[in-house]
Fold this sequence. Notes:
Blueprint: E1 3-12, E2 17-25, E3 31-34, H1 41-55, H2 63-73, H3 80-101, H4 105-108, E4 116-122, H5 131-143, E5 148-151, H6 163-180, E6 185-189, H7 196-206, E7 213-215, H8 223-232, E8 237-239, H9 246-254, E9 260-261, H10 271-283, H11 296-308, E10 315-318, E11 320-321, H12 325-328, E12 329-331, E13 335-336, E14 339-341, E15 350-352, H13 354-358, E16 383-384, H14 385-390
Parallel strand pairs: 4-10, 5-6, 6-7, 7-8, 8-9
Antiparallel strand pairs: 1-2, 2-3, 4-14, 11-16, 12-15, 13-14
Helix pairs in contact: 1-3, 2-3, 5-6, 7-8, 9-10
Amino acid sequence: MKITDVNPIVVDAFRANFVFVRIETDEGVHGIGEGTLEVKELALAAAIDMLKSYLVGKDPFAIEHHIETMHRDSYWRTGPVLRSALSAVEAALFDIKGKALGVPVYDLLGGAHRDAIRCYANGWFAGARTPEQFAALARNTVAKGFTALKWDPFGAAYMQIDRAQRNLSMDIMAAVRDAVGPDIGLMIEGHGRFDVPTSIALAQDIARFEPIWFEEPTPPDSIDALAEVRRKSPVAIAAGERFFDLATFQTAIEQGAADYLQPDVSHVGGMLAAKQIAGQANARFLPVCPHNPIGPVANAMTLQIAAACSNVVWLETMTTDVPWRAEIASEMASVENGEMSIPATPGLGVDIDTTACDRYPYQRHDLRHYSGALTDIRPADATDWGKAAEA
Length: 391
């Protein structure tokens, strides 16, 4: 079997654009991968296209060799664009190999520890502005079976937070905790927006809500800063969605910078890299909770890691998505009682309809995280993920 073509596919998804890759072979078996990188989608598509000249004519089964070679020959060896391109291509190669051999990808990664993974909900807060609105949406999400909720309550704050926004953020957290009761897990997201003293002060403030973690309180540039916050924080710290290589995760582990590690399978260089990161964490008995807020193929990729790595303890899950997700993707996974099933079908257990993808071409979407518009992450006609998966 030989690779005959490599095609990046960019699809509008309202808050970002999905970036898929489809790899063809001379035996009619194709593979799908995803590396969706918000704000840098066109750069990512170009990076995938640049890898085509190396891949065409190669044996798709020699996955690790190809990833190592393309990484080496890029010369500029790391960064989100390259690592996301490698992630997408690697996933498509694993998808081909799994289909050809008749096994799910997790069997190629060592086999499954589980057939479902508990989920925490993200995106459930779409459109909320007031504590009352957050509380109502939280109740609705818990009623769907989710046992943990994550969100960023900090508005447009950056580096510091003024007293009014700080009080509003605390009121929002209090309203959500009161709405869902003491048994539902809360994860508080920071999106790397605060300096060290502000992060420590906020960690002390939110401790009364007993969150599972405070996520990415400081920007990802400095492991030292994150480690300082973690040493002084009364709540657990989660981080890693914007770490792109094994060495950075190793440094974070060695410095005790985080209690929960959050590699993104679509950005760290692929599933093999993600499994190595999980192994690094497991050596220190640290849990892994993969970052997973993007598209249907990235979700399928992350499920393979959730199956193959014993220390994956939560799966991030966006509760709704654009209504055309079910139109462009055939997903085998489903959510029930707060857990997502892990398909046992050959390959990744997902495929995309390229004709349908063409109906939703690239649209520019600017980052909302620090503008105060973060809750505007879904269109008015967003579809429940479970319904999208079953459509």
